[in-house]
Structures are given as structure tokens and as C-alpha cells.
UniProtKB/TrEMBL annotation:
Active site: 359
EC number: 2.6.1.16
EC primary class: transferase
GO molecular-function term, one example from the UniProt record: carbohydrate derivative binding
Complex and partners: Homodimer.
Record-given protein name: Glutamine--fructose-6-phosphate aminotransferase [isomerizing]
From-to range in the entire protein, with total length: 248 to 611 of 611
Amino acid sequence: DKGNHRHFMQKEIYEQPVVVAQTLSSYLRPVEEQVALPDLGFDLSRIGRVAIVACGTASYVGAIGKYWIEQLARVPVEVDVASEFRYREPVLGPDMLGLVISQSGETADTLAALRHMKAEGVTVAGIINVPTSSMAREVDLLLPTHAGPEIGVASTKAFTCQLAVMAALAVNLARARGRLNPAEEAEIVRQLAEVPAAMNAALAHDAEIEAMAPTIAGARDVLYLGRGPDYPLALEGALKLKEISYIHAEGYAAGEMKHGPIALIDDQVPVVVIAPSGPLFDKTVSNMQEVRARGGKVVLISDADGLAQAGDGLLASIEMPRVHPLIAPLVYAVPVQLLAYHVAVAKGTDVDQPRNLAKSVTVE
Ligand code: M6R
């Protein structure tokens, strides 16, 4: 049932404050200001490295998780798309924690990677949405998301719920390895607890995003730029736009523009820049200015400080609430999803059932 919404995707975007809060509630102890994973029966302090394997949108959660886990816990992380993982003959070992991420829990490549890791003696955790799925049954350690059924082919609420669990896992690993003192952990828990409210503030920009969608709907190509954990979010933005609007889109690390893709820029190419204010902001903005100098039409997603610093000359800006850079991908996901949604609606595509795609990809 779509309720008051025109599409399941729209409904699922709007459910995020509630389902992310639900998911966080099983991983946060707000009174103690601590993160608590379900009892894993497993000593996280003995982990020497983490191998994350997933497909599509879930793989971008893995890529964001790499930034978080390495920064907070100082454990090396490798991230693979599942279709490549087994065939590159990865070096596995008992010091490794495997981590699969999947909404459906049935994606064939991810399931095969999970089985491969287990057969090689690796302990495998899974961030999974469907509790009765094959992956949920086969992982050693289940870290459930509580997104509820996701019907739209484009993954939205599963993505942000997966990020919420990933953040909790990163904090837990950091604590287990003695990398986080109680005050630092309390601060991150407070930041995470604010995510649902910040998502509501982001949703309040829906009408503005809808109004700019027809301009983007006419484009042939769209680029998305970000740095740090917002780089995988740029990849996610591009995937979302491609899959439901059929517009060619690419995500790039903002600093990579001048190594090739800037050649694409002219006044026909919208460039979505994801840049919360924080330590990486100035560098991203200077990459944005390079795009503007070549006539590129910039849509900047930032907070009030960032937008003030960036100046004018933008095609559009979308103001996010001010959030800690660590949790920004959870909140900035909302305008990225809404933009893809409204562009697809403006183009008149089948938003919930895009051509050539299945919700669950059960062949390799
Ligand atoms: O069910 P899964 O999370 O394993 O699915 C993985 C991908 O097929 C999925 O995220 C796909 O990329 C989405 N359609 C993206 O919106």
C-alpha cells in the first residue's frame, strides 16, 4: 500500500526517519551513550582486517564503511563488488572478518561470496534486511536492518538503515580495539541519535528539489562529486539517477575531475556536488569552482555555512541541517534520492519498476 504517496519509492524515502530510528534503537543505548551490537559471541578485538562484499547500492554502504572503520577503528578494510570478489582470488585468513551487505539477502553474487568466505574459514557477519533470507540464515553474525519491506526497485530506506548499522559496527570495532574513549563514543552516539530529525529537515526540501527536477530531466549526462565518505554517496546518486531516469550519470571523487572527466563539462552538464562543511569542504569547493569556470551547472548540497562560503553562480543549492561530517552520508542521502525520484517523475519513467531491472538479482 502506497498510502498517500504516488510511488513506493517516494513512500520509502519518507519512511527513512522512522525506520532509521527503529534500526538505531537496536544498536544504541542512549542513556549509557554507548553503541551495543547484538551479542555476537565473537571477540571483535581480534580482528586484523575486514573484507566487505556487496552489490550495487549495498556496495556503496561498504565503501562508506571503509572510511568509517579505518578512521575510527584503524582496521584495514577491503571492499569488493560481489561479482568480482571470488574471481580475483582474494587473500583470506582467520584474522579477517567478512561482512556482506544486502537488502534482500538473496543476491546471487553476494550469497556466493558469503559461502566462499565461510568455506575458507572466515567468520562472516551480514547486514541484512530480510530476516528469513538465505544470507540471514547462513551468516555467522546477523546484524539486521529494520527497514521493513522495500518494494521500489531503487533501494532507498535499506541504504540508510544499512549505513546506521555500519556506523554502529565501526564504533563497536573502535571500542573493542581501544581506539575510542567513552566521551568520544558518547559524542558519536549523540550524533547518530540526531539523524532521524536531520532526515526530517532534509525531507522539508522536497518541493524545492521537485521544482529543479525538470531542468535536470533535460540533461544527457549528470555528474556527482564528493570527497571522503561522500564520494561513495556520489556514486550512489549517479546509480539512483541512471536506474530510474535513464539519464547517463557518473560519480567521481571530486579531486579526480581534473584527471579526465572535466573534459565533459560544458553548459549542458549538471554537476551535483555533495559537500557538507568540514575538513574536506574547501578542497571540494575548489573542484566545484573548476567546474563552474567551464560553464558547468552546479547543484550544491551543503549546510548554511557551506552555502555561504560557496558564493553564488550556482544552478541551485539545497540546504541541509548542520551535521557531523561522519554522519553526513545518512542525511545527504535524502536529497540525492529525492533528486533522482523527481527527475524520473518529470521524465515519466516507471519509477518503481524501471526497465530491465529486478528487485532481487538471483542469477550470477
Ligand atoms: O538485495 P541487495 O541489497 O543485495 O541488492 C543489491 C543491488 O542489486 C541493489 O542495491 C541495486 O543496486 C538497487 N536496485 C539500487 O537501487
